[in-house]
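Homework help board

Subject: predicted structure for assignment chain

Our instructor gave us this sequence and asked us to write out the predicted structure in token form, then describe one feature. I got the tokens but I'm not sure how to describe them. Can anyone check?
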Amino acid sequence: MTHGKPFLTWPPTATKSSGFSLVEVLVALLVLGVGVMGFIALQLRSVETTSVTYSRTQAMAVARDIIERININPDAWPGGYDDSNSKWVQNLVAPPSCIGIGAACDSADLAAMDVYEVRAVVRDMLFDGKIEIEAKCDNEEVACVKVAWDETTLEDCDPEDVSVDGAGSDGNCIVVEFWPQRAILAVAEEEV
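My token output:
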């Protein structure tokens, strides 16, 4: 005696299944993959921007350092510091030390020591770092310090093309204009 539905029926009837189909799982994985790829691209861009910002900060610190050294030693300006004799691109050789008891250095010796120390810092802190100082930047009365790194050359570091956000340049150089202390003192004496 059978009560209710028979145990086996032919043809089998469709039953409602629960869970996800293979297509739904693949679509969900595709959406997740696109989201993860976007996040990875964002992280890579963030790391790149952090690296550029770090290099720019180090370059600004080096430029400020040499400007302070020039202003502390005004008697050696411009001959001891500017790039008229290519002292910024010669082989890096340590001059006699001007530090310590009994060290007898004049302003030219101190300038040579400053050039050596700043070039060593640029070499150590910036990948393929380069620096130069011009007594008259772009034929103006101000001097300038140019610092470039990575594949950028100092010749490519044009102050007209460099902007705050790096637009219009490759972003791997800075130009800092300054008035040397000696020039400021000369202007003050002329006014008196």
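Reply (TA_rk): Your tokens look well-formed. For the description, you could write something like this. Helices lie at 22-72, 107-125, 181-191. That's the kind of observation they're looking for.
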